[in-house]
Amino acid sequence: MRYISTRAQTAGAADSSNRTFSEILLGGLAPDGGLYLPARYPRIDESDLAQWRELSYADLACAVLARFIDDIPLDDLRTLTHRTYTPAIYGNGRNDSAAGEITPLRWLEPPAQGRGEGGLAILELSNGPTLAFKDMAMQLLGNLFEYVLERNGEEINILGATSGDTGSSAEYAMRGKRGVRVFMLSPHQRMSPFQRAQMYSLQDPNIYNIAVRGTFDDAQDIVKAVSNDQAFKTRYRIGAVNSINWARVAAQVIYYFKGYFAATRELGGSGGRQVAFAVPSGNFGNICAGHIARMMGLPIGRLVLATNENDVLDEFFRSGVYRPRATSETAATSSPSMDISKASNFERFVFDLVGRDPDLIRQLWSQVDAGGSFDLSSMPCFARLPDFGFVSGRSTHADRLATIRRTHDRYGLVIDPHTADGLKVGSEYRTADMPMVVLETALPAKFEATIVEALGHRPDRPAGMEGLETLPQRVEVMDVNVNQVQRFIARHVQ
Fold first, then answer.
1. 346 Ramachandran zone, left/alpha/beta (phi>0; psi -120 to 50)
2. What is the mean pLDDT of the chain?
3. How far is CA 74 from CA 20, 80, 118, 248, in A?
4. pLDDT confidence band for 95 (50 / 70 / 90)
């Protein structure tokens, strides 16, 4: 399996294309500023689905990842997935619907038996150490990083940006790892108190938190600027854990397979049956994994993209116009992990949509990087958009509150505001011919204020999370300044 950049100058450019998984694992952005993707997507068929259907999550992870990774011995890869996906690591949160399952499926409305009618379900992805779906990929990434660094005798300094959940997931995955330091940027005072406490209360010497006086997009722009400074990146061995890192996306592909198997089990097997997935979307990484699973051949009938008031992606799928917003136009909402107006993973999908044309991708993103937009509505590729299965919708604060209340009253379940966005929009696209599976974003304990507003009481907290906000916190607050961040990194790297 070889990897290419979405912006490759030529098909075989040595600096950005035709690389192995281990070569791109630590780097994040390609040297040309593009994002890595497989040169071709591996394909699966009915026999693969039949063999994988009853696998444990760890074995399924090995089977799926082996299609993307051929430079790590299979036995080593299996050891890594079994070390990662254990009930002990994913034993937080509810996880009461199926004892021992890593990602249990919770039916809100079971499908009608024998009639092929769709049901409505939530795939629980938030039972990991930081109570967010990001743990599903990040825990694996931590073990992959440690494995490859030890094998190569190297060290790495990870630079990332978070709108709320990526940061804590990365830090909990990388704390104590040999040869790894983490420098995580977050938007100052734009995350929930619980999210801030999860990150800033860590005292591990290899973890550094930087709060920038701006939005997540400002923080993400700093990460990209540093990653594009090749001299600095090389000297200080800068790597990435944001979803610009291909391994993050590949690891997220796994739970689409697991969710598909769980949803179709109620209908008596796969048999080519299709499943729809509704995905709360900000940076496009989570739903990009669904797109890749679909391109591999998983029978996904529909990918429902749900945004909050920051509806840049919904606008594109409805109109063909991709128009990132300025910092002043990015709303601070009650689903803060989606307060994003520049979806860094979106480039991967557009690369596929335009027929994998790197020249066109460079042209389009030169407009975006200059503060502009692009419009594909009149191009032939946009007419093919339905072939990729995407539909989209928008959810507001009032929608979130109403969905949280209705879900609690009707099903006895408390959900977080991001999952509420996904459930609201997913419900609008339900059909009788396929189950609708909503991907859970986080546990409601991370967003107490919104739950109190919706329900009048605080959500339950998993054991050990009480009093988190009272712990001492360690964070540096900085202006939105690339040079200042670089100086901070240089001071702390020996």
1. alpha
2. 91
3. 15, 10, 37, 19
4. very low
The dihedrals phi and psi of 269, each to the nearest 5 degrees, come to: 110, 180
Distances (CA, A) of 423 to 103, 315, 473: 17, 19, 34
What is the three-state SS of 124-179? CCCCCCCCECCHHHHHHHHHHHHHHHHHHCCCEEEEEECCCCHHHHHHHHHCCCCC
Q: How far is CA 407 from CA 9, 27, 294, in A?
A: 50, 41, 29
d(CA 297, CA 267): 19
What is the per-residue pLDDT for 113? 57
Q: Which of 134, 177, 258, 446 is catalytic?
A: 134
Task: Give the angle 117-120-124 at the CA atoms, nearest 5°.
Answer: 140
Q: State residue 94's pLDDT score.
A: 56
CA–CA separation, 174 vs 183, rounded Å? 11
446 is a catalytic site residue: no
Q: How far from the centroid of its chain's Cα atoms is residue 12's Cα?
A: 29
Q: What are the tokens at 199?
A: 């990150």
Overall average pLDDT of the 142-148 stretch: 93
Please report the DSSP string for 204-260 in residue order.
Answer: -TTEEEEEESS-HHHHHHHHHHHHH-HHHHHHTTEE--STTSHHHHHHHHHHHHHHH
Length of the chain: 494
Residue 424 has pLDDT above 70, yes or no: yes
pLDDT of residue 100: 67
pTM of the model as a whole: 0.91
Q: Which two tokens stand for residue 251?
A: 């690891």
Give the pLDDT confidence of 209-226 residue by residue, as tens digits: 999 999 988 998 999 899
Strands (DSSP E) contained in 250-377 are 275-280, 300-307, 321-322, 374-375
Non-local (6+) Cβ contacts of 139 within 8 A are: 84, 85, 89, 128, 129, 169, 172, 173
Q: Which residues contact 182 (CB under 8 A, 6 or more apart)?
A: 158, 160, 170, 171, 174, 175, 206, 207, 208, 241
The band of 239, judged by pLDDT with boundaries at 50, 70 and 90, is confident
For the segment 460-471, the average pLDDT, to the nearest whole number, is 86
Per the model's pLDDT, the better-predicted residue between 395 and 101 turns out to be 395
Judge whether residue 10 has pLDDT over 50. Answer: no
Copy the structure tokens of residue 475: 């964070």
Q: What single-letter DSSP state applies at residue 4?
A: E
- Residue type for 338, please? M
pLDDT confidence tier of residue 12, bands split at 50, 70 and 90: very low
Q: What is the DSSP string of 8-27?
A: -SSTT-TTTSSB-HHHHHTT
Domains and CATH numbers, the chain: 105-130+247-455 (3.40.50.1100)
